[in-house]
Amino acid sequence: MSKDAVDSAQAVAPAQAAATPADAGDAGYSKDLKARHINMIAIGGAIGTGLLLGAGGRLHNAGPALALAYLVCGVFAFFVVRALGELVLYRPSSGSFVSYAREFLGEKGAYVAGWMYFLNWSTTGIADITAIALYTHYWSFFTSIPQWVLALIALAVVLAVNLISVKIFGEMEFWFAIIKVATIVGFMLVSIFLLATQHKVGGHTPGLSVITDHGGIFPHGLMPVVLVMQGVIFAYAALELVGVAAGETAEPEKIVPRAVNSIMWRVGLFYVGSVVLLALLLPGSVYSADESPFVTVLSKIGVPAAGDVMNLVVLTAAMSSLNSGLYSTGRILRSMAMAGSAPKFTAKMSRSQVPYGGILLTCAVCVLGVGLNYLMPSQAFEIVLNVASLGIISTWVIIMICHMVFVRRAREGLVTRPHFQLKFSPVTEIATIAFLLVCLGMMWNDPDVGRKTILLIPVIAVMLVAGWFGVRRRVSANADKELAQLTK
Length: 488
Description:
The chain is 73% helix and 0% strand. By secondary structure, the chain is mainly alpha-helical. It is globular and about 75 Å long. The chain crosses the membrane at residues 38-55, 67-89, 110-135, 147-165, 177-197, 217-246, 267-289, 309-333, 354-377, 383-406, 427-444, 450-471.
C-alpha cells in the first residue's frame, strides 16, 4: 500500500490506522532473535567466501592495492547498511527494504525490489550448494558421490534448520560466524608472529620488502585494481540481512545501531587487515584463484592439514550463506504476498512462526540448481554467481533511493528521522548509487561471463514487466481492501 493511501486513511480514522501494522506481512512473527544473534548475522554478512577464498585470485591480479579496493567498497557498503539501519529504526519490518520500497516508491517499487532480491538469493543459493558440493569433494571420502547428490543433501539440511524456528536459524548463524571470525583472527595472529620474528614464508622474508621488491602497491598499474572492484563489491553482499533480521528482535532500536556501526571496524579489521598481512607475507603472484590465500600462506610454512581446516571453514561460509538466503527470501516473499505481488502460498506461516511458503519457493529454485549441477557441474558456479550480482546491485540501489525519498519527506515534515542517521544526504546516496552502477558497467570488460550477464538485463526487465501485468490487479485489490479496513 502506498504512503499516500496510508496518510489519507489516517486522516479519516487515525485510531484504527494506528492499531494496524504498517506492513501486513509483519504480523505473526516471533521476537526470538537476541542481540548476539543480530551482531553475528552482521559479522556473518561481512565475512564470506569473498575473503576466505576469492581474495587469492584478486591478490594475484591487483597486488597489495587490493586492500584499497576492499576499503573503498567497504565504505560504500557501510553507507548502504547505515541507510537501511535508519529506515529500520524508523519502522522495523521483516519485509525490510521491500516494505520501505512499498511506502516510499509505491507497489511497483516494492515488486521490483522483492523479485530482484529473490533473484539474488535464489541464484546465490544455487552457487552455495554448488560450492558446498565442490568443497566436500576435496576429501577423498566424498569423491565417489556425484556433485548433484551432495548439493541436494546440503539443501535438505539447511531447509530443515530454517523450517524449525527463527531461533534455530539464529543459533546456526551465530556459530557459523564464530567459526569464520575465529579462523581469521587465528590467521592474523599467526601472520603478526611471522612478521615479528621475520620467519621466512616460501623463501620470502615477511615485511614491506615483499611489496617494494615485487612492483610496489600497484604492481600491474591502477586499472586491474579498478576492474577487481566489481568482484570485491559482491564480497559484501548479505550485509543487508541486518535489516531483515531486525523485524524478529524485541529491541531493534538498541541492537541495530550497535550492529551497523560495528560493521565498519570489522570491515577494516577482517578484510583490509587480512589483505595487508597477506601482501606483507608473500608476493601477489604467488597467490591463486584456485586456492584460499590463507591455505597458500599456511602451507608455505608447513602447517599440517592447513588445506583441510580452511576447506572446512569455506564450507561453513557457504552453508551460512545458503542458510541466510532461505531465511531472508522467506520473509521478503511473505511481505510481497500480503500485498499481492507474490504467490499466495508464500504468505503461509507455520505454527513455529516461520514463513515456510517463501522458503520452499526459494528451495524449489535451488533444486533447479541441483539439476544444473547434474548437467553442467563445471560451469554451474560461475553462471549463477554473475546473475546474482545483478540482484544485489539492484537491491542496494533501491535501498539508497528509498532513503533519499525518506529524507525528503522528513524535510517536508511528513515523517520523523530517528537519531541514528546516514549523514550528508542526498550526496551520500547519489555517490553510492553512482559507484554501484560503475561496478555493474565494469562487468562489460569481461567478455566471457560479465558481458553476457549485462546482456541479461533487458531479458530480466521484460520478465519483470510481464510479471507486473500478471499481478497488478491482485495488488490493486489488496490495496483497496487494506484501505477499506483502515477507513471503516
